[in-house]
UniProtKB/TrEMBL annotation:
This is Endoglucanase. It catalyses: Endohydrolysis of (1->4)-beta-D-glucosidic linkages in cellulose, lichenin and cereal beta-D-glucans. GO terms for biological process: cellulose catabolic process. The lineage of its organism: Eukaryota, Viridiplantae, Streptophyta, Embryophyta, Tracheophyta. The active site is at H511, D559, E568. One of its GO terms (molecular function) is cellulase activity. It comes from Actinidia chinensis var. chinensis.
Length: 617
Protein backbone atom coordinates (compact mmCIF):
# COMPACT_ATOMS: atom_id res chain seq x y z
CA UNK A 1 0.00 0.00 0.00
CA UNK A 2 1.42 3.27 -0.98
CA UNK A 3 0.71 6.69 0.20
CA UNK A 4 2.19 10.15 -0.41
CA UNK A 5 4.91 11.38 1.83
CA UNK A 6 4.28 15.08 2.55
CA UNK A 7 8.01 15.71 2.22
CA UNK A 8 7.98 14.55 -1.38
CA UNK A 9 8.90 10.79 -1.22
CA UNK A 10 6.76 7.64 -1.46
CA UNK A 11 5.38 6.27 1.71
CA UNK A 12 5.17 2.50 1.81
CA UNK A 13 3.01 0.70 4.29
CA UNK A 14 4.01 -2.86 4.81
CA UNK A 15 1.64 -5.61 5.61
CA UNK A 16 3.42 -6.16 8.82
CA UNK A 17 2.24 -2.80 9.98
CA UNK A 18 -1.36 -3.82 9.87
CA UNK A 19 -1.14 -5.63 13.08
CA UNK A 20 -4.01 -5.81 15.41
CA UNK A 21 -4.87 -3.05 17.87
CA UNK A 22 -3.87 -5.22 20.79
CA UNK A 23 -0.39 -5.69 19.40
CA UNK A 24 0.04 -1.98 18.84
CA UNK A 25 -1.22 -1.15 22.29
CA UNK A 26 1.22 -3.63 23.78
CA UNK A 27 4.04 -2.08 21.85
CA UNK A 28 3.03 1.45 22.96
CA UNK A 29 3.03 0.40 26.57
CA UNK A 30 6.56 -0.80 26.14
CA UNK A 31 7.50 2.60 24.68
CA UNK A 32 5.76 4.42 27.55
CA UNK A 33 7.69 2.50 30.16
CA UNK A 34 10.91 3.21 28.37
CA UNK A 35 10.05 6.94 28.12
CA UNK A 36 9.11 7.22 31.78
CA UNK A 37 12.38 5.62 32.78
CA UNK A 38 14.23 8.69 31.35
CA UNK A 39 13.98 12.17 32.89
CA UNK A 40 12.36 14.74 30.63
CA UNK A 41 13.87 18.08 29.92
CA UNK A 42 12.11 21.31 30.73
CA UNK A 43 11.17 21.88 27.13
CA UNK A 44 9.85 18.34 26.79
CA UNK A 45 7.78 18.73 29.88
CA UNK A 46 6.27 21.90 28.46
CA UNK A 47 5.38 19.92 25.30
CA UNK A 48 3.66 17.28 27.29
CA UNK A 49 1.98 19.40 29.99
CA UNK A 50 1.27 22.58 28.12
CA UNK A 51 1.32 26.02 29.85
CA UNK A 52 1.22 25.95 33.68
CA UNK A 53 -1.78 27.50 35.38
CA UNK A 54 -0.71 30.80 37.22
CA UNK A 55 -2.29 32.11 40.40
CA UNK A 56 -4.40 35.22 39.77
CA UNK A 57 -3.29 38.35 41.74
CA UNK A 58 -5.84 40.28 43.79
CA UNK A 59 -6.11 44.07 43.77
CA UNK A 60 -7.80 46.73 45.89
CA UNK A 61 -9.50 49.64 44.18
CA UNK A 62 -9.02 52.82 46.26
CA UNK A 63 -10.87 55.02 43.84
CA UNK A 64 -8.02 57.16 42.61
CA UNK A 65 -5.54 54.31 42.44
CA UNK A 66 -5.50 50.52 42.30
CA UNK A 67 -2.96 48.75 44.47
CA UNK A 68 -2.05 45.20 45.20
CA UNK A 69 -4.04 43.77 48.04
CA UNK A 70 -0.88 42.41 49.62
CA UNK A 71 0.83 45.84 49.58
CA UNK A 72 -2.34 47.49 50.90
CA UNK A 73 -2.58 45.05 53.81
CA UNK A 74 1.08 45.54 54.69
CA UNK A 75 0.82 49.34 54.52
CA UNK A 76 -2.25 49.47 56.74
CA UNK A 77 -0.61 47.11 59.18
CA UNK A 78 2.55 49.19 59.42
CA UNK A 79 0.53 52.37 59.99
CA UNK A 80 -1.53 50.74 62.73
CA UNK A 81 1.58 49.31 64.37
CA UNK A 82 3.33 52.72 64.26
CA UNK A 83 0.27 54.44 65.73
CA UNK A 84 0.12 51.87 68.51
CA UNK A 85 3.81 52.35 69.24
CA UNK A 86 3.51 56.14 69.34
CA UNK A 87 0.47 55.92 71.61
CA UNK A 88 2.31 53.54 73.92
CA UNK A 89 5.35 55.84 74.14
CA UNK A 90 3.11 58.86 74.79
CA UNK A 91 1.28 56.98 77.52
CA UNK A 92 4.55 56.00 79.16
CA UNK A 93 5.90 59.57 78.99
CA UNK A 94 2.72 60.99 80.53
CA UNK A 95 2.35 58.41 83.27
CA UNK A 96 5.96 58.02 84.38
CA UNK A 97 6.81 60.71 87.00
CA UNK A 98 9.21 63.31 85.62
CA UNK A 99 11.97 65.01 87.52
CA UNK A 100 12.22 68.58 86.18
CA UNK A 101 15.52 70.26 86.46
CA UNK A 102 14.79 73.30 88.64
CA UNK A 103 15.41 76.71 87.09
CA UNK A 104 18.46 78.37 88.58
CA UNK A 105 17.52 81.08 91.07
CA UNK A 106 17.67 84.60 89.64
CA UNK A 107 20.97 86.38 90.13
CA UNK A 108 21.26 89.25 92.58
CA UNK A 109 21.03 91.84 89.83
CA UNK A 110 17.70 90.47 88.63
CA UNK A 111 16.31 90.32 92.17
CA UNK A 112 17.42 93.89 92.80
CA UNK A 113 15.96 94.97 89.44
CA UNK A 114 12.53 93.65 90.39
CA UNK A 115 12.67 95.71 93.57
CA UNK A 116 14.20 98.87 92.07
CA UNK A 117 11.32 99.20 89.61
CA UNK A 118 8.81 99.08 92.48
CA UNK A 119 10.17 102.38 93.77
CA UNK A 120 8.58 104.12 90.78
CA UNK A 121 5.19 102.68 91.71
CA UNK A 122 5.56 104.28 95.13
CA UNK A 123 6.40 107.67 93.55
CA UNK A 124 3.34 107.94 91.33
CA UNK A 125 1.15 111.02 91.65
CA UNK A 126 -2.48 111.43 90.60
CA UNK A 127 -5.12 108.73 90.29
CA UNK A 128 -3.35 105.42 90.66
CA UNK A 129 -4.06 102.33 88.56
CA UNK A 130 -5.80 99.39 90.23
CA UNK A 131 -2.73 97.19 90.35
CA UNK A 132 -0.11 99.62 91.58
CA UNK A 133 1.07 97.03 94.15
CA UNK A 134 2.02 99.55 96.84
CA UNK A 135 -0.65 99.07 99.48
CA UNK A 136 0.14 102.19 101.50
CA UNK A 137 -0.19 104.56 98.52
CA UNK A 138 -3.41 106.05 97.12
CA UNK A 139 -4.70 108.82 94.88
CA UNK A 140 -3.05 112.16 95.57
CA UNK A 141 -2.77 115.77 94.37
CA UNK A 142 -5.76 115.55 92.03
CA UNK A 143 -5.97 119.36 91.80
CA UNK A 144 -2.46 119.97 90.47
CA UNK A 145 -2.64 122.86 87.99
CA UNK A 146 -6.16 123.85 88.93
CA UNK A 147 -5.16 125.17 92.35
CA UNK A 148 -2.86 127.79 90.77
CA UNK A 149 -5.06 130.48 89.22
CA UNK A 150 -2.11 132.09 87.45
CA UNK A 151 -1.13 128.91 85.61
CA UNK A 152 -2.08 128.68 81.95
CA UNK A 153 -1.77 124.88 81.89
CA UNK A 154 -4.49 123.59 84.19
CA UNK A 155 -4.35 119.79 84.05
CA UNK A 156 -1.11 118.70 85.68
CA UNK A 157 -2.39 115.63 87.49
CA UNK A 158 -0.11 112.60 87.32
CA UNK A 159 3.59 112.08 86.87
CA UNK A 160 6.06 111.23 89.61
CA UNK A 161 7.13 112.82 92.85
CA UNK A 162 10.82 113.56 92.74
CA UNK A 163 12.11 112.15 96.01
CA UNK A 164 11.01 112.06 99.63
CA UNK A 165 8.72 115.02 99.11
CA UNK A 166 5.77 115.69 96.80
CA UNK A 167 7.40 118.13 94.36
CA UNK A 168 7.29 117.30 90.65
CA UNK A 169 10.48 118.54 88.94
CA UNK A 170 10.39 117.99 85.18
CA UNK A 171 14.15 118.31 84.69
CA UNK A 172 15.40 115.28 86.67
CA UNK A 173 12.19 113.39 85.85
CA UNK A 174 12.86 113.76 82.12
CA UNK A 175 16.35 112.37 82.59
CA UNK A 176 14.92 109.45 84.56
CA UNK A 177 12.46 108.56 81.79
CA UNK A 178 15.18 108.84 79.13
CA UNK A 179 17.37 106.46 81.10
CA UNK A 180 14.57 103.93 81.48
CA UNK A 181 13.78 104.13 77.77
CA UNK A 182 17.43 103.76 76.78
CA UNK A 183 17.75 100.65 78.94
CA UNK A 184 14.61 99.12 77.39
CA UNK A 185 15.81 99.80 73.82
CA UNK A 186 19.15 98.11 74.50
CA UNK A 187 18.08 95.31 76.85
CA UNK A 188 14.43 94.46 76.15
CA UNK A 189 15.30 90.73 76.08
CA UNK A 190 16.73 90.96 79.59
CA UNK A 191 13.66 92.80 80.85
CA UNK A 192 11.55 90.07 79.26
CA UNK A 193 13.61 87.34 80.93
CA UNK A 194 13.20 89.10 84.29
CA UNK A 195 9.43 89.37 83.75
CA UNK A 196 9.59 93.17 83.90
CA UNK A 197 9.24 94.39 80.31
CA UNK A 198 5.56 95.34 80.53
CA UNK A 199 6.12 96.85 83.96
CA UNK A 200 8.94 99.16 82.90
CA UNK A 201 7.03 100.21 79.77
CA UNK A 202 4.04 101.12 81.95
CA UNK A 203 6.34 103.21 84.15
CA UNK A 204 7.74 105.06 81.13
CA UNK A 205 4.28 105.74 79.78
CA UNK A 206 3.15 107.10 83.14
CA UNK A 207 5.94 109.66 82.86
CA UNK A 208 5.51 110.54 79.17
CA UNK A 209 1.73 110.89 79.53
CA UNK A 210 2.39 113.54 82.15
CA UNK A 211 5.01 115.33 80.04
CA UNK A 212 2.49 115.67 77.22
CA UNK A 213 0.29 117.62 79.64
CA UNK A 214 3.00 120.13 80.58
CA UNK A 215 2.96 121.93 77.21
CA UNK A 216 0.70 122.27 74.18
CA UNK A 217 1.73 118.95 72.65
CA UNK A 218 -0.60 119.29 69.66
CA UNK A 219 1.06 122.54 68.50
CA UNK A 220 4.16 122.89 66.35
CA UNK A 221 5.35 125.97 68.23
CA UNK A 222 5.05 126.72 71.94
CA UNK A 223 6.12 129.55 74.24
CA UNK A 224 6.02 127.88 77.69
CA UNK A 225 6.51 124.67 79.63
CA UNK A 226 5.18 123.82 83.07
CA UNK A 227 8.54 123.06 84.66
CA UNK A 228 7.53 122.27 88.24
CA UNK A 229 4.53 121.63 90.49
CA UNK A 230 4.91 122.26 94.22
CA UNK A 231 7.39 124.36 96.11
CA UNK A 232 10.33 123.43 98.28
CA UNK A 233 10.97 126.58 100.30
CA UNK A 234 13.38 125.58 103.04
CA UNK A 235 13.40 128.95 104.85
CA UNK A 236 11.02 127.61 107.47
CA UNK A 237 8.29 130.13 106.82
CA UNK A 238 4.77 129.55 108.12
CA UNK A 239 3.23 129.04 104.66
CA UNK A 240 2.60 125.33 104.08
CA UNK A 241 4.66 123.84 101.27
CA UNK A 242 6.12 120.54 100.22
CA UNK A 243 9.27 120.88 102.30
CA UNK A 244 7.97 122.68 105.35
CA UNK A 245 5.16 120.16 105.80
CA UNK A 246 5.65 116.48 106.54
CA UNK A 247 2.50 114.88 105.14
CA UNK A 248 1.44 111.90 103.12
CA UNK A 249 0.79 113.06 99.52
CA UNK A 250 -2.74 111.69 99.88
CA UNK A 251 -3.43 114.21 102.69
CA UNK A 252 -2.04 117.38 101.05
CA UNK A 253 -4.64 120.13 101.29
CA UNK A 254 -2.59 123.26 100.64
CA UNK A 255 -2.38 124.95 97.20
CA UNK A 256 0.52 123.82 95.04
CA UNK A 257 1.93 126.50 92.71
CA UNK A 258 2.96 125.81 89.12
CA UNK A 259 6.25 127.16 87.78
CA UNK A 260 6.26 127.88 84.06
CA UNK A 261 9.35 128.68 82.04
CA UNK A 262 9.62 130.61 78.77
CA UNK A 263 13.37 130.40 78.15
CA UNK A 264 14.49 126.96 79.20
CA UNK A 265 16.62 125.29 76.54
CA UNK A 266 18.00 122.65 78.89
CA UNK A 267 14.58 121.54 80.10
CA UNK A 268 13.02 121.63 76.63
CA UNK A 269 15.83 119.57 75.08
CA UNK A 270 15.82 117.06 77.95
CA UNK A 271 12.06 116.60 77.71
CA UNK A 272 12.48 116.18 73.93
CA UNK A 273 15.03 113.42 74.62
CA UNK A 274 12.59 111.71 76.98
CA UNK A 275 9.74 111.72 74.44
CA UNK A 276 11.97 110.78 71.49
CA UNK A 277 13.53 107.80 73.29
CA UNK A 278 10.12 106.66 74.51
CA UNK A 279 8.79 106.81 70.92
CA UNK A 280 11.29 104.05 70.05
CA UNK A 281 10.14 101.99 73.04
CA UNK A 282 6.53 102.29 71.85
CA UNK A 283 7.22 102.01 68.12
CA UNK A 284 4.71 99.13 67.85
CA UNK A 285 1.99 101.51 69.06
CA UNK A 286 2.20 103.71 65.98
CA UNK A 287 -0.30 106.38 67.01
CA UNK A 288 1.25 106.91 70.45
CA UNK A 289 4.79 106.78 69.08
CA UNK A 290 4.00 109.46 66.50
CA UNK A 291 2.40 111.59 69.21
CA UNK A 292 5.60 111.37 71.24
CA UNK A 293 7.74 112.22 68.21
CA UNK A 294 5.61 115.28 67.44
CA UNK A 295 5.88 116.46 71.04
CA UNK A 296 9.65 115.92 70.98
CA UNK A 297 10.02 117.99 67.81
CA UNK A 298 7.95 120.80 69.30
CA UNK A 299 9.94 120.83 72.53
CA UNK A 300 13.29 120.78 70.77
CA UNK A 301 12.27 123.67 68.51
CA UNK A 302 11.25 125.61 71.62
CA UNK A 303 14.60 124.77 73.23
CA UNK A 304 16.53 126.05 70.23
CA UNK A 305 14.43 129.17 69.75
CA UNK A 306 14.08 130.30 73.37
CA UNK A 307 17.65 130.17 74.67
CA UNK A 308 18.29 130.11 78.39
CA UNK A 309 18.77 127.89 81.44
CA UNK A 310 15.58 126.86 83.18
CA UNK A 311 17.16 127.36 86.61
CA UNK A 312 18.58 130.81 85.86
CA UNK A 313 15.56 132.46 87.48
CA UNK A 314 16.50 131.06 90.88
CA UNK A 315 13.75 129.71 93.13
CA UNK A 316 13.57 125.97 93.67
CA UNK A 317 15.11 124.93 90.36
CA UNK A 318 18.34 126.73 91.15
CA UNK A 319 18.48 125.30 94.69
CA UNK A 320 17.61 121.67 94.10
CA UNK A 321 18.32 120.91 90.43
CA UNK A 322 20.50 123.66 89.05
CA UNK A 323 21.43 123.26 85.41
CA UNK A 324 24.95 124.38 84.56
CA UNK A 325 24.51 124.48 80.77
CA UNK A 326 22.12 123.61 77.96
CA UNK A 327 24.68 122.68 75.29
CA UNK A 328 24.97 119.08 76.47
CA UNK A 329 21.18 118.78 76.27
CA UNK A 330 21.34 120.04 72.67
CA UNK A 331 23.72 117.20 71.72
CA UNK A 332 21.74 114.67 73.77
CA UNK A 333 18.32 115.76 72.52
CA UNK A 334 19.31 115.99 68.86
CA UNK A 335 20.90 112.53 69.00
CA UNK A 336 17.71 111.00 70.36
CA UNK A 337 15.58 112.86 67.81
CA UNK A 338 17.77 111.53 65.01
CA UNK A 339 17.25 107.96 66.22
CA UNK A 340 13.52 108.56 66.63
CA UNK A 341 12.96 110.21 63.24
CA UNK A 342 15.87 109.35 60.93
CA UNK A 343 15.97 113.04 59.98
CA UNK A 344 19.54 113.96 59.03
CA UNK A 345 19.11 117.55 60.21
CA UNK A 346 19.21 116.30 63.81
CA UNK A 347 22.35 114.25 63.13
CA UNK A 348 23.99 117.28 61.54
CA UNK A 349 23.24 119.27 64.68
CA UNK A 350 24.38 116.54 67.07
CA UNK A 351 27.70 116.27 65.21
CA UNK A 352 28.28 120.00 64.75
CA UNK A 353 31.80 120.70 66.09
CA UNK A 354 30.74 124.07 67.50
CA UNK A 355 27.96 122.48 69.53
CA UNK A 356 30.29 119.79 70.86
CA UNK A 357 32.84 122.44 71.78
CA UNK A 358 30.28 124.45 73.77
CA UNK A 359 29.15 121.23 75.50
CA UNK A 360 32.73 120.65 76.68
CA UNK A 361 33.55 117.63 74.54
CA UNK A 362 37.14 118.75 73.88
CA UNK A 363 38.29 119.74 77.32
CA UNK A 364 38.56 117.81 80.55
CA UNK A 365 38.05 119.12 84.03
CA UNK A 366 37.38 117.35 87.32
CA UNK A 367 33.83 116.35 86.38
CA UNK A 368 34.57 115.22 82.84
CA UNK A 369 32.93 111.85 82.28
CA UNK A 370 30.43 112.24 85.13
CA UNK A 371 27.02 111.41 83.67
CA UNK A 372 24.06 112.85 85.56
CA UNK A 373 20.72 114.64 85.38
CA UNK A 374 22.71 117.86 84.92
CA UNK A 375 25.40 116.85 82.44
CA UNK A 376 24.51 114.39 79.66
CA UNK A 377 27.69 114.76 77.60
CA UNK A 378 29.19 111.37 78.50
CA UNK A 379 25.91 109.64 77.65
CA UNK A 380 25.48 111.59 74.42
CA UNK A 381 29.00 110.71 73.25
CA UNK A 382 28.40 107.01 73.90
CA UNK A 383 25.02 107.20 72.17
CA UNK A 384 26.63 108.66 69.05
CA UNK A 385 29.58 106.25 69.23
CA UNK A 386 26.96 103.54 68.78
CA UNK A 387 26.17 104.99 65.36
CA UNK A 388 29.81 104.83 64.31
CA UNK A 389 30.31 101.29 65.62
CA UNK A 390 27.31 99.73 63.90
CA UNK A 391 26.39 101.90 60.90
CA UNK A 392 29.60 103.83 60.17
CA UNK A 393 27.96 106.69 58.26
CA UNK A 394 31.31 108.01 57.05
CA UNK A 395 31.75 111.49 55.62
CA UNK A 396 30.80 114.13 56.72
CA UNK A 397 30.12 112.68 60.18
CA UNK A 398 33.14 110.46 60.64
CA UNK A 399 35.50 113.05 62.06
CA UNK A 400 33.29 114.19 64.95
CA UNK A 401 31.92 110.68 65.57
CA UNK A 402 35.48 109.41 65.79
CA UNK A 403 36.20 112.17 68.33
CA UNK A 404 33.16 111.16 70.39
CA UNK A 405 34.29 107.53 70.24
CA UNK A 406 37.79 108.46 71.41
CA UNK A 407 36.43 110.64 74.20
CA UNK A 408 34.15 107.81 75.30
CA UNK A 409 37.19 105.52 75.46
CA UNK A 410 38.98 108.08 77.63
CA UNK A 411 35.98 108.30 79.97
CA UNK A 412 35.96 104.51 80.30
CA UNK A 413 39.65 104.57 81.12
CA UNK A 414 38.99 107.12 83.87
CA UNK A 415 36.61 104.67 85.56
CA UNK A 416 39.28 101.99 85.94
CA UNK A 417 41.22 101.65 89.22
CA UNK A 418 44.55 101.82 87.32
CA UNK A 419 44.06 105.55 86.77
CA UNK A 420 43.72 108.41 89.23
CA UNK A 421 41.01 110.53 87.64
CA UNK A 422 38.70 109.68 90.54
CA UNK A 423 39.45 108.58 94.08
CA UNK A 424 37.91 105.53 95.70
CA UNK A 425 36.86 104.90 99.25
CA UNK A 426 38.67 102.20 101.19
CA UNK A 427 35.69 99.98 100.49
CA UNK A 428 36.12 100.53 96.73
CA UNK A 429 33.34 103.01 95.86
CA UNK A 430 34.41 105.38 93.09
CA UNK A 431 34.07 109.04 94.09
CA UNK A 432 32.68 110.56 90.91
CA UNK A 433 31.40 113.59 92.82
CA UNK A 434 34.75 113.98 94.61
CA UNK A 435 33.60 113.19 98.13
CA UNK A 436 30.49 115.35 98.07
CA UNK A 437 27.24 113.90 99.49
CA UNK A 438 24.80 111.65 97.64
CA UNK A 439 27.38 109.74 95.57
CA UNK A 440 25.40 106.70 94.46
CA UNK A 441 23.35 108.39 91.72
CA UNK A 442 26.60 109.09 89.81
CA UNK A 443 28.02 105.63 90.44
CA UNK A 444 25.05 103.76 88.97
CA UNK A 445 25.10 105.93 85.84
CA UNK A 446 28.79 105.16 85.32
CA UNK A 447 28.14 101.44 85.84
CA UNK A 448 25.46 101.56 83.16
CA UNK A 449 27.67 103.38 80.65
CA UNK A 450 30.59 101.02 81.30
CA UNK A 451 28.50 97.88 80.83
CA UNK A 452 26.83 99.32 77.75
CA UNK A 453 30.13 100.31 76.13
CA UNK A 454 31.43 96.82 76.88
CA UNK A 455 28.39 95.30 75.19
CA UNK A 456 28.73 97.66 72.21
CA UNK A 457 32.30 96.51 71.66
CA UNK A 458 31.29 92.86 72.02
CA UNK A 459 28.49 93.30 69.48
CA UNK A 460 31.02 94.90 67.11
CA UNK A 461 33.38 91.90 67.59
CA UNK A 462 35.93 94.11 69.32
CA UNK A 463 37.62 92.49 72.35
CA UNK A 464 38.60 95.72 74.09
CA UNK A 465 39.98 99.24 73.77
CA UNK A 466 43.14 101.22 74.39
CA UNK A 467 43.98 103.48 77.28
CA UNK A 468 47.13 105.08 75.97
CA UNK A 469 49.51 102.27 74.97
CA UNK A 470 47.69 99.67 77.08
CA UNK A 471 44.95 97.44 75.76
CA UNK A 472 42.12 96.48 78.13
CA UNK A 473 39.56 93.75 77.68
CA UNK A 474 35.86 94.55 77.83
CA UNK A 475 35.72 92.21 80.83
CA UNK A 476 37.59 94.86 82.81
CA UNK A 477 34.77 97.34 82.24
CA UNK A 478 32.15 94.83 83.25
CA UNK A 479 34.14 94.01 86.36
CA UNK A 480 34.20 97.71 87.27
CA UNK A 481 30.42 97.92 86.94
CA UNK A 482 29.90 94.75 88.97
CA UNK A 483 32.13 95.86 91.84
CA UNK A 484 30.32 99.20 92.10
CA UNK A 485 26.83 97.69 92.01
CA UNK A 486 27.90 94.94 94.42
CA UNK A 487 29.06 97.66 96.82
CA UNK A 488 25.60 99.23 96.64
CA UNK A 489 23.93 95.86 97.19
CA UNK A 490 25.89 95.13 100.38
CA UNK A 491 29.54 94.29 99.68
CA UNK A 492 30.84 97.28 101.58
CA UNK A 493 32.47 97.92 104.97
CA UNK A 494 29.07 98.50 106.57
CA UNK A 495 27.66 95.28 105.16
CA UNK A 496 24.58 97.29 104.30
CA UNK A 497 22.49 97.19 101.16
CA UNK A 498 21.67 100.70 100.03
CA UNK A 499 18.64 99.40 98.13
CA UNK A 500 15.67 99.16 100.49
CA UNK A 501 14.24 95.66 100.69
CA UNK A 502 17.27 93.95 99.16
CA UNK A 503 19.07 91.65 101.56
CA UNK A 504 18.55 91.58 105.29
CA UNK A 505 20.37 94.77 106.29
CA UNK A 506 19.18 97.96 104.62
CA UNK A 507 18.14 101.50 105.72
CA UNK A 508 15.00 101.51 107.86
CA UNK A 509 14.68 105.30 108.29
CA UNK A 510 14.41 106.45 104.69
CA UNK A 511 13.81 110.17 104.23
CA UNK A 512 10.38 109.82 102.64
CA UNK A 513 7.09 111.29 103.79
CA UNK A 514 4.79 108.58 102.49
CA UNK A 515 6.92 105.74 103.85
CA UNK A 516 7.43 107.30 107.29
CA UNK A 517 3.76 108.04 108.12
CA UNK A 518 1.43 105.10 108.78
CA UNK A 519 -1.69 104.59 106.71
CA UNK A 520 -4.07 104.48 109.67
CA UNK A 521 -7.04 106.55 108.44
CA UNK A 522 -5.72 109.59 110.32
CA UNK A 523 -4.96 112.70 108.27
CA UNK A 524 -1.88 114.30 109.77
CA UNK A 525 -1.73 118.00 108.89
CA UNK A 526 1.31 120.03 107.88
CA UNK A 527 2.97 120.00 111.31
CA UNK A 528 1.17 116.92 112.55
CA UNK A 529 3.52 114.70 110.59
CA UNK A 530 6.62 116.14 112.18
CA UNK A 531 6.46 113.55 114.94
CA UNK A 532 6.91 110.85 112.32
CA UNK A 533 9.76 112.76 110.69
CA UNK A 534 11.58 113.05 114.00
CA UNK A 535 10.77 109.56 115.27
CA UNK A 536 13.64 107.15 115.89
CA UNK A 537 11.43 104.19 114.99
CA UNK A 538 11.79 102.49 111.60
CA UNK A 539 9.43 103.58 108.84
CA UNK A 540 6.05 101.85 109.15
CA UNK A 541 5.99 101.40 105.35
CA UNK A 542 8.85 99.77 103.45
CA UNK A 543 9.84 101.75 100.37
CA UNK A 544 10.80 98.68 98.33
CA UNK A 545 13.55 99.25 95.78
CA UNK A 546 14.54 102.77 96.82
CA UNK A 547 18.26 103.46 96.47
CA UNK A 548 19.18 105.95 99.16
CA UNK A 549 21.68 108.79 98.66
CA UNK A 550 24.52 106.64 99.97
CA UNK A 551 27.56 106.68 102.23
CA UNK A 552 30.15 109.40 102.71
CA UNK A 553 33.71 109.39 101.40
CA UNK A 554 34.82 107.29 104.37
CA UNK A 555 32.24 104.54 103.72
CA UNK A 556 30.25 105.84 106.68
CA UNK A 557 26.48 105.84 106.71
CA UNK A 558 23.94 107.18 109.20
CA UNK A 559 20.47 105.69 108.96
CA UNK A 560 18.73 108.86 110.09
CA UNK A 561 15.49 110.06 108.53
CA UNK A 562 16.25 113.76 108.93
CA UNK A 563 19.58 113.56 107.09
CA UNK A 564 18.60 113.46 103.43
CA UNK A 565 22.26 113.38 102.33
CA UNK A 566 22.35 109.78 103.50
CA UNK A 567 18.80 108.44 103.35
CA UNK A 568 16.80 110.23 100.63
CA UNK A 569 16.13 108.41 97.34
CA UNK A 570 15.38 110.13 94.00
CA UNK A 571 13.80 108.93 90.77
CA UNK A 572 16.84 110.12 88.77
CA UNK A 573 19.11 107.97 90.95
CA UNK A 574 16.81 104.97 90.80
CA UNK A 575 16.54 105.19 87.00
CA UNK A 576 20.32 104.87 86.75
CA UNK A 577 20.19 101.94 89.17
CA UNK A 578 17.55 100.17 87.08
CA UNK A 579 19.58 100.71 83.89
CA UNK A 580 22.77 99.34 85.47
CA UNK A 581 20.99 96.35 87.01
CA UNK A 582 19.29 95.25 83.79
CA UNK A 583 22.56 95.63 81.88
CA UNK A 584 24.33 93.32 84.34
CA UNK A 585 21.46 90.89 84.91
CA UNK A 586 20.98 87.45 83.40
CA UNK A 587 23.26 85.78 80.91
CA UNK A 588 25.93 87.72 79.04
CA UNK A 589 24.81 85.90 75.89
CA UNK A 590 21.74 88.15 75.68
CA UNK A 591 23.81 91.23 74.86
CA UNK A 592 22.24 94.32 73.36
CA UNK A 593 19.58 94.75 70.72
CA UNK A 594 21.58 96.27 67.86
CA UNK A 595 18.69 97.05 65.54
CA UNK A 596 15.76 98.58 67.46
CA UNK A 597 17.62 101.84 68.02
CA UNK A 598 17.96 102.22 64.25
CA UNK A 599 14.36 101.31 63.39
CA UNK A 600 13.61 104.81 62.06
CA UNK A 601 17.06 105.44 60.54
CA UNK A 602 17.10 105.13 56.73
CA UNK A 603 19.83 103.12 54.96
CA UNK A 604 23.09 105.01 54.91
CA UNK A 605 24.97 105.76 51.73
CA UNK A 606 27.98 107.82 52.78
CA UNK A 607 28.63 110.93 50.77
CA UNK A 608 32.08 110.82 49.19
CA UNK A 609 34.41 113.53 50.45
CA UNK A 610 35.05 116.46 48.15
CA UNK A 611 38.00 116.10 45.77
CA UNK A 612 41.27 117.67 46.85
CA UNK A 613 42.11 121.15 45.68
CA UNK A 614 43.90 121.29 42.32
CA UNK A 615 47.63 121.02 42.55
CA UNK A 616 49.54 124.23 42.11
CA UNK A 617 53.24 124.18 41.27
Amino acid sequence: MYGRDPWGGPLEINAADSATDDDRSRNLNDFDREALSRPLGETQQSWLLGPSEQKKKKYVDLGCVIVSRKIFVWTVGIILAAGFLVGLITLIVKTVPRHHRPHPPPDNYTVALNKALMFFNAQKSGKLPKHNNVTWRGNSCLNDGKSDSSAVIKDLVGGYYDAGDAIKFNFPKSFAMTMLSWSVIEYSAKYEAAGELNHVKDLIKWGTDYFLKTFNSSADTIDRIAAQVGVGDTSGGPTPNDHYCWMRPEDIDYPRPVYECHSCSDLGAEMAAALASASIVFKDNKAYSQKLVHGARTLFKFARDQRGRYSAGGADAGIFYNSTSYWDEFVWGSAWLYYATGNNSYLQLATAPGLAKHAGAFWGGPDYGVFSWDNKLAGAQLLLSRLRLFLSPGYPYEEILSTFHNQTSIVMCSYLPYFTSFNRTKGGLIQLNHGRPQPLQYVVNAAFLATLFSDYLAAADTPGWYCGPNFYSTDVLRKFAETQIDYILGKNPKGMSYVVGFGNHYPKHVHHRGASIPKNKINYNCKGGWKWRDSSKPNPNTLIGAMVAGPDKHDGFHDVRTNYNYTEPTIAGNAGLVAALVALSGEKTFGIDKNTMFSAVPPMFPTPPPPPAPWKP
